[in-house]
Specification:
- The protein is 7% helix and 40% strand.
- The chain is mainly β and 351 residues long.
- The chain has two domains: 209 residues, no CATH class; 130 residues, Immunoglobulin-like.
Length: 351
């Protein structure tokens, strides 16, 4: 099994124009992470966070273009999976970017040769596990080679097109991103127009995979101000009852949140309590909105040791409508701490 350190929330990290930020954190004094007014990747999910060698896996992203003005549309691009990079480090995949795009060259449109769309399907290599322990610098557990393989899927949201950056960006830092997002005049765009992220998928042989048993959490239903919303035809989009806009001191906030069944709170055989007993997963929900405001960016649903933190009254977030009428979206992305995720979209109307 992999070291506990590599079970960290890597999939929640995104590179924004060369700077790292954690999607669940908003430093004091900054705009809340829950307010979506730029190009954003709000979540990513693999159909099987832990997969068998040789299995097909589909990775999906939840992305949205929240810019008030959009000179060029946002597009999602993917790089083919990076398998077992040295030390399991995402940035050790960067040299492959240049080789994959060798036919394009610096200053040319890299987006034209990359897969696009909100989903990407790949096959986990049959030797993903067996070759991992042969790579110098790969992690070990108590001196024993790790019995897993790792695939890293890079997903990029760009309101323009991608280009390789000139020169050797690794000369300054191996973590320097070797590509950027550019407009039609080849002007490099900033973080409002460009998000670079990745999703991790681990490979295990059949026996160990059965013991680890890791699936994505499930959202049973959505609570909206005490009502259970009915899913639209696609099963992941909901339409909420219309709300009144805030007028002066009159502002009617509503409670909103997901119902996640206890069956999603899986045992995590990779982590143990002080008695040596396996812990369960931690499960939380991130909230995002295009207008109005939320009281919290995230809410804990299940703790690793004690389970459910309470009913919907305890886990719901609070949405406050804007002062002007309009339409918008609210997203709920439910995560577990082993790379699982699922989400819903709520359509909002404020009169």
């Amino acid at each position: 099994m992999k070291p506990a350190s590599s079970v960290s929330r890597l999939c929640r990290l995104v590179v924004v124009f060369g700077a790292w930020v954690v999607s669940s954190c908003a430093p004091s004094g900054f705009v809340s992470e829950s307010e979506v007014d730029t190009v954003r990747i709000l979540g990513s999910s693999a159909s099987t966070p832990y997969a068998l060698p040789g299995a097909q896996v589909t990775v999906s992203v939840l992305a949205y273009d929240g810019r008030p003005t959009r000179p060029e549309p946002m597009a999602i691009s993917w790089f083919p999976p990076c398998i077992n990079p040295k030390s399991d480090a995402y940035y050790n995949c960067f040299p492959k970017f240049a080789s994959l795009a060798g036919a394009v060259g610096p200053g040319q449109n890299l987006s034209s040769v990359l897969p696009s769309g909100e989903d990407y399907t790949f096959t986990m290599p049959a030797d993903a596990v067996s070759t991992h322990s042969l790579i110098p610098g790969t992690p070990t557990v108590d001196g024993v080679p790790a019995y897993y393989g790792l695939a890293i899927l890079f997903n990029i949201a760009c309101a323009g097109h991608l280009e390789l950056l000139p020169g050797d960006s690794a000369a300054n830092s191996p973590q320097s991103l070797p590509l950027g997002c550019f407009d039609s005049q080849h002007n490099q765009l900033g973080p409002e127009d460009f998000v670079f992220g990745f999703t991790t998928v681990y490979a295990y042989e059949a026996g160990l995979l059965a013991a680890l048993s890791n699936t994505n959490p499930v959202i049973d239903s959505i609570d909206f101000n005490g009502q259970t919303l009915t899913a639209n035809a696609d099963g992941v989009t909901y339409t909420a009852p219309a709300l009144a806009h805030c007028a002066g001191s009159t502002c009617n906030s509503v409670k909103v949140g997901p119902s996640v069944p206890e069956s999603s709170w899986e045992v995590n055989p990779e982590e143990f309590d002080v008695t040596g007993s396996p812990l369960h997963e931690e499960i939380w929900a991130d909230f995002y909105v295009t207008f109005g405001s939320l009281s919290d960016d995230a809410r804990l649903l299940y703790s690793s040791g004690n389970g459910s933190v309470g009913g919907l009254n305890d886990t719901d977030d609070t949405f406050t409508p804007p002062s002007d009428p309009g339409t918008g979206y609210l997203w709920i992305v439910v995560h577990d701490n082993r790379g699982g995720a699922t989400w819903v979209t709520i359509e909002l109307t404020v009169n």
